[in-house]
Design brief:
The chain has 137 residues and is an all-alpha fold. The chain has helices at 3-34, 43-64, 92-99, 104-120, 128-134, and strands spanning 89-90, 125-126. It is built from 5 helices and 2 strands; from the N terminus they run H-H-E-H-H-E-H.
Length: 137
């Protein structure tokens, strides 16, 4: 066999493979076009999902800050630290609990929620009881 014949055979084999690949791609494209488009999420389903996520995060927060964990002794509330990056005073126990929240954006959400609830309830110093109530979404 001459080298020219070998080249022609190889070229023919490559063209056959390309034809099969093109046919497969056309078939896949047609199947994708026939599938229905995902519908927009209804407001009701969105609220249900939002509720589920809120319940899940609340449950995980409760697991992260159980009632049985050790906390430092209560300090003088008038000289307590501030809650996160807010102007809300809190106890050392609350600071300890906030530091135990591992996900930074969740930690910030909890701090903002507690600070907002403290302002609304006119609480001067956030203690652990108020934190536990205010941190639940």
């Amino acid at each position: 066999m001459s080298s020219e014949t070998k080249v022609e055979e190889r070229l023919s084999a490559v063209e056959d493979r390309l034809d099969r690949l093109e046919n497969l791609l056309v078939g896949i494209s047609q199947k994708l076009d026939k599938q229905p488009r995902p519908a927009e999420m209804s407001e009701e389903k969105g609220e249900a999902l939002k509720g589920w996520v809120t319940d899940y995060v609340s449950m995980r927060l409760q697991q992260l800050v159980p009632e049985t964990c050790d906390h430092p002794a209560e300090s003088n509330p008038s000289e307590g630290p501030f809650l996160g990056n807010t102007s809300t005073r809190c106890t050392e126990e609350v600071v300890h609990r906030v530091k135990r929240i591992p996900i930074p954006f969740v930690r910030e959400m909890v701090v903002q929620r507690v600070a907002e609830n403290a302002r609304n309830a006119d609480v001067n110093v956030v203690d652990i009881e108020f934190f536990e109530k205010a941190a639940t979404f």
